[in-house]
Every structure is written in C-alpha cells, then in structure tokens.
Amino acid sequence: MSTNERSLISRFAMEVVTGCIALLAGIVVVLGALEYEIGWDEAGPQPGYFPFYVGLIIIVASLGVLVQGFLNRSRTTGEAFLTREGFKRVMAFFLPLAAFTAGSYVLGLYVGTFVYLAGVMIFQGGYRWPFALTVAGGITVFFFVLFERWFQVPLLKGPLEAFLGIY
Amino acid sequence: MDNIASLMHGFSVALTMHHVLLMMLGVLLGILVGVLPGLGAPNGVTLLMPLTFSMDPISAIILLTSMYWGALFGGSTTSILFNIPGEPSSVATTFDGHPMAKQGRATEALTYAFLSAGFGALAGVVLITLLSGWVAKFALRFSSPEFFAVYFLAFASFIGLGGASPFKTVISIMLGFAFTAVGMDTVSGNVRLTYGFDELLRGISFLVAVIGLFGIGELLLTMEEGLRFEGVKARVSPRKVFETLLTLPRYWVTLLRSALIGCWMGITPGGPTAASFMSYGLAKRFARRPEGFGQGREEGVIAPETADHAAGSSAILPMLALGIPGSATAAVMMGGLMIWGLTPGPMLFIEAEGLRSGASSPRCTSAMSSPWCLCSPPCRCSPPSCACPSPSSGRSSSSSA
To answer: Nearest by CB to A58, which of B175, B187, B226?
Structure first.
C-alpha cells in the first residue's frame, strides 16, 4: 500500500477483529459439538469428540492471534490494512455482486444475470446502453441454452420464466 | 516394467483425436485463465470442473490437467511481460524475466520459460509414473496410524514452512476440519453442526468452499490492489524460438538441478511456489558468475520455471497415491476425482488402473503440447506484434521495451 493512500483500517485493528471472529467461530463449533457426547466409547470416538477438540484448538489459536496482535501493537497500529481507495474499489465490485446474488433469489438467475451485466457495463464500464443491453442479453441467452438445453441442468428461475411458461 | 506398459497403454488412450483436441482446448483455456489476473490455476480448474461432469472421467481429467499446465504457463507470461505474477509460483520468474523483457529480449525470456517448463513437467511426470506403482504398494500397507502420521507431517510443514503467523495457519486448518464436520457424520449417522438448517444436511459442498475462498476471495483481493498495467510488447517469431532452443543445452546443470528440486518439493508438501524460490536461490548461489542475477540472467528464468512445473507435476503423486494433495490445484483436482467416484489413494491403483495411466500420459503430451500451443497462435499473428491482453474496460496500456 502506498503511503499516499489514506488508511481506513489499521493492521492492528484487523488483527484484533480476526482474532475475535475466529474466537466466535471456535465457540460456535464447540457449542455445536456439545450437543452430542464428546467422550470415547467402546466403538471409538463419539460424535461430538472431533468437532469439540477442533473448536477448542480454534479458540486457543485465536487467543494466540489476539495476544500476538497486542504484543505487536506498536508496530502495526501505523500500518494500513485497508486504504480508503482500496475500500472503494472492493465495494465497487462487491456491492453489485451481493445485489446480484440477493436479486437472483427473487428474479431467478437468468434475469439476475442480465440485470447485473447490463447495470455494471452501463454504470461502471461506461459502455453505451444499446451495446450493454445487447451483450448482456446475448450472454444471458447463451447461458440459458448452455445450461437448460445442453447440460440439462435446471437453474433457479423466477417470475419472468413462470410468466413465459419456461420450466 | 509394469509401469512402462501401463504408460504405453495410457498413451494409446490419450492420443486419440478427440483427446488431443481436448488437450489443445484445455491448454488454450488455461493460458487465457493464467494470463488474466485474479484467475489462477486453482480457480480455473474449479470453474471448469462442473463443465466436465457430462464427460467421461478420462476426458475430464485430460481437460483439467491441460488447463492446469496452460494456466501455469499463462502465469509466467504475465510475469515476464508485465512484472505481474499470474500465479504465486511465477513470482520468482519476475526477478530476471521482466528485466530480460525490458532489455528487448522478451522472446528469449518467454522461450526459455516455456522450454524449461516443459522439461520440468516431463521430468515430474516421468518420476511419478516410475514411482507411482512402488508408492502405491507401499501405501497399501498403510492403516489409520500411518495416515494420521502423514497428514500430521503435512499440516506441521504447512505451519512450519508457511510465512504467516502459525496461529493463523492453525486456525485455517482447523476451520477446514470444522467445515467438513458439518452435516451427517458417516460413522455414527448423527447430524452435526447444522444448527437446524436443513440445507446443511449434506454438509458444505467442496466446490462452494473452493469457489468462495479461491475464486471470489482472490477476485476481491485483486480489485482492492487495483489493476494497473504497463506491459512489454513481444513479437514471437519461430526463428528466434528455434535459435533460443539451440542454446538451451548450455544450461543443462541448471535444468537438472531445478528439476530435482521441483520433484522433491512437489512430492513433499512444499509445493511449486517454494520450489521456484528455492531453485532460484540455489541457481544464484551455485552460479559460476553470480553477478547479473536480477538484471536478466537466463538461469534466473530457467531455474524457477523448471522447478515450478516439476513440482506441479509431482504434486499429483501424493494426491493420487496417498490421497494427500501437494498443492492447491492438486486439492481441487482431488475433489473432482472424488466427485467422479474415484477416490485417490492406494485403492485407486487397484480399481482404476486404466484411469491412472490414462491420466499420466496426457500430462506428458499436454506438457509437450503447451509450448507448441503458445507458439502457434502468436506465430499466426506475426508480423503484427503480440501484445498481451489487458483486462477490464478494454484499455490496453503497453510501453515499448
């Protein structure tokens, strides 16, 4: 990261967050394991044994990450983990992708693909809208033919396909 | 020898028209995937894997292994021309490859890269073919304590040889185990760690995990770092390639040493990246004239490339024979094999003799065909110079040498 870009999250903060998330994950795994017996019976380990110890190791390692993070605090507080520009770039990619994923639940994968491609091409790529719509439409039709007809793999469909009678 | 007979049988399976076409398609796709940043060999293999479900296993493996080689080589292309390694294992190629390109010797650099890659890959494949039967026989004597010991060695070396904090490596390994524990337990039949979500009954799919972690994760990382390209144009003429080929035997010591390092690091869980760095370091140390490394020495391209590809091939051996993948792509391919019902491990050699030899020989031929494939499209498009593609919004920025 160049020092010209402003830091949004410092390395130290991220280390602490990582440690905490890992700690949470370890606790979730341990709690899930405790639903079953965590001992050893005559047939071998009981169902909860393996996840319990895996979760325990995660908890211990995450505490290790936290301790290391605090020990290196002086060095890592000045270090940038994420800069403002980097964050903007990531969000510019991630937010449309998340919207596409959420939208596909409602609209179906094909309509979602069309909307995502057309939207990203017009608003982020700067292409003219006739070209963008044509390309997006062409790719959507190509995927439809590829998956539905050639691979015979039915994908998630939405209200438009139901309206048109395509199953 | 039994292995040679199987290898010949494998060649007869692999060298049909259909399979050769698949190899060429795979290599071209792989080069395309390797040249684009953000998409590397593991991602490319993952993304192509669902397409192969409709093929028979041998064709699918041929396509995927050819793609893997193409991607490895595509990574070297961007290392040399753009100083951007397309693969972690191509980082060492940037040290001398890009300076060579900037001095106007891009064709030489590319030629050395793909010739030594082919040599390394062949060495790796020959090794695993000769050794595989023996390793499998040895592995058949394995039972639970031995498997545990081998896996423990693998994970311990990840923690020890990995650059990151050991605690984070341990967390990653254990999270992987936790993901596999989700769903129905095969031993007791109990449903674990689903917290009532019905969708998790079958566990977390391997493909979902790999696409999320390798695919989307890498894309987000690439977006964050921003895509900036200043490349070097390279005109690849067949005459220059042939001239460079003739000078290659001069570097036989480097080639052999790097191939050995690569094979060793591939079989033990070192991986292609570690192999390429180690090979570059040793080449620099044992060179008769150590000055010039870092400014465009030929050995600086030959050494890491040979080791990288030798390791890439031999990483398949522990995956096939023991069920332990030696690299990320070997792990993805192992997932693919399991989806096709072929469980890697010693039993694979007993149950699917034809498949194993059919898988080794395409690696030989696709290793040999990948440099050829790279040569032919540029040859067809010369005299126009061959600028490498730049991604996103069609801007192509290049600076002349």
So the answer is: B175
Q: Is residue A134 part of a domain?
A: yes
Residues of chain A found within 8 Å of residue B181, distances taken between Cβ atoms: 29, 50-51, 54
- In one letter, which amino acid is B389? P
Asked whether the ipTM of the predicted complex exceeds the cut of 0.85, the reply is no
Is position A90 within any domain? no
B170–A47 C-beta distance less than 8 A: no
pTM to 2 decimal places = 0.63
Q: Does some domain include residue A27?
A: yes
Domain count, chain A: 2
Residues of B with CB below 8 A from A92's CB? 223
Residue A23's domain spans which residues?
Answer: 7-83
Pick B355 or B345 by higher pLDDT: B345
Q: Which of A29, A42, A123 best tests the B interface by mutation, with the highest count of B CBs <10 A?
A: A29
DSSP one-letter string for B273-342:
HHHHHHHHHHHHHH-SS-TTTTS--SHHHHHHHHHHHHHHHHTHHHHHHHS--SSHHHHHHHHHHHHTT-
Which residue in chain A is spatially nearest to B227 when comparing CA positions?
A89
Strand stretches in B162-268, DSSP E: 183-184, 191-192, 231-232
